[in-house]
Specification:
Length: about 160
């Protein structure tokens, strides 16, 4: 997953450059996901919408990061072309001890699933939070409870 910064999103030639890079390096669009922050979608509007639509035309996946912080986050489901939502870290913090938050997250994830949008929950640091996010319906999880980050990969196993 490649995160697109606010500065990159302001470049009107970004989609063309991405398509050129995919072609030049023989990379299929469906091999790459691009993450756009929810806040950038709200502030940059039509330009980001056009970019996301173009990315989906080349079969790349669009991920909305920082999802759920705003009371109107759910509106993105109907207004923005996306494949995944990645919950804001604040949405999983203290999830296992806050029934209201767990209910809100469950509602958001159910709304996403009803539109065939997958969900990613990050910052899962303990088993109780992992259990709470699974109960809420997350499709994918990330966090230290699953394993500590490492910069070393052993691809021979």
């Amino acid at each position: 997953m490649l995160s697109l910064s606010n500065a990159l999103l302001r470049d009107p030639e970004l989609l063309l450059w991405i398509c050129d890079q995919l072609r030049q390096h023989s990379v299929r669009g469906n091999w790459v996901s691009f993450q756009i922050q929810e806040q950038d979608i709200k502030t940059l509007g039509d330009a980001v919408h056009a970019l996301a639509s173009g990315l989906r035309q080349v079969k790349s996946r669009v991920v909305v990061g920082g999802f759920g912080r705003n009371p109107d986050s759910e509106l993105l489901f109907d207004e923005f072309p996306l494949d995944f939502v990645r919950l804001a870290p604040a949405m999983t913090e203290n999830l296992s001890t806050d029934p209201l938050k767990e209910g809100h997250v469950k509602h958001l994830l159910a709304a996403a699933q009803s539109r065939h949008i997958k969900s990613i929950a990050g910052c899962i640091e303990d088993e109780r939070t992992l259990a709470a996010i699974w109960r809420a319906g997350a499709d994918y999880v990330q966090g230290k409870v699953l394993g500590r980050p490492s910069s070393v990969f052993d691809l021979n196993d």
